[in-house]
Amino acid sequence: GAFAATEKIMAELARKGMDRQEAHELLRGNAMKAWDAVQAGKANPLFELVTGEKRIKEFLGESELRELFEVKTHVGFAEEKSAETAKKIEKAIAGYSLAEEKTQGF
Length: 106
Prior knowledge:
The structure is a single chain. By secondary structure, this protein is mainly α. Helices cover 61% and strands 0% of the residues. The chain is built from 6 helices and no strands. The protein has helices at 5-15, 20-39, 46-51, 54-57, 62-69, 78-93. α1 (5-15) packs antiparallel against α2 (20-39).
């Protein structure tokens, strides 16, 4: 979810000239506030907290942040690897059939 975006945001802030430690502290502070809200049963406010951070807005616009928060950008090749693994498993078990209960000696 949203918390996974913080690493990418920190890297992008550093790439655009913000001190990495400053970016880390800003994101960590906002992540902790968001975590407290989530633990209290509220919706995760991390996006709103980060986009409302004046110092971050000096380096990244809302549209850039929205893109960095997009979950699909966090999973890399997970979808493709999962599909590939599932096909390998299907191929490996294709010759097997489930035995009926009576043939198992029960």
